[in-house]
Write a structure and sequence with these properties.
It contains eight helices and four strands. The chain is mostly helical. It has a two-stranded antiparallel ribbon. Bound molecules: iron/sulfur cluster (SF4).
Amino acid sequence: MAVTADEATLREQASNEAHVRTALQAARLPLAIQRAREKASNLKPDSAADLLVRASQRAPTVVQRVLWLHKAAIAWSKPIAAVAACRKGCAHCCHIPVTISSREAKLISAATHRKLQEPARSVRLRDFEEADSTAAASTTLQHWGTSTACPFLVDDACGIYASRPLSCRVLFNLDDDDLLCQHGAHEPAVVPYADSRMIRALALAAQPSEQFADIRDFFPPAS
Ligand code: SF4
């Protein structure tokens, strides 16, 4: 298909803007990492998070474990949210890969009355047990890239805030603004996120038989 002169100009402008953004981000990254380290070292954890994690570990069913962990994630994130760059109306992270469990997908489906689909690509806990298979599992979960919005994003706000998955509850940029979250259509951002590995690992361990897939695999966006 032929490209018009206007389209060519727009593409050139976009390319220039991307170069400027990339240069600004490269210059910012060391400072952002330093800021994130300082903020992380000054955090005072919310003691309710531990209690809620323990409640999750005592819960008899998977769904109860997940719901307790969702509450734990909110308590865990409270002091982090207070110093993070994340603000209402900022939705960069709703365009990056968002891994959820099949249990969380069922909770979202029940809350929204939206039918969920069998994901075309998914992994299970056992796929994370060896280095090689962890890499393959991560590739599977990243396949949507950064150009497709979450199907529940409405006017740059989460349309399922009360039912949002754990991945969204624990993702916080510890820089002072969203510069590093800005990403191109096919390039991931390098962001000093708060370290959520522990609570994510607990969520994996709490659901050993569940499938994990991108939210867009359970709820494909309208094409
Ligand atoms: S579930 Fe909500 S917060 Fe999470 S990616 Fe989708 S719109 Fe964003």
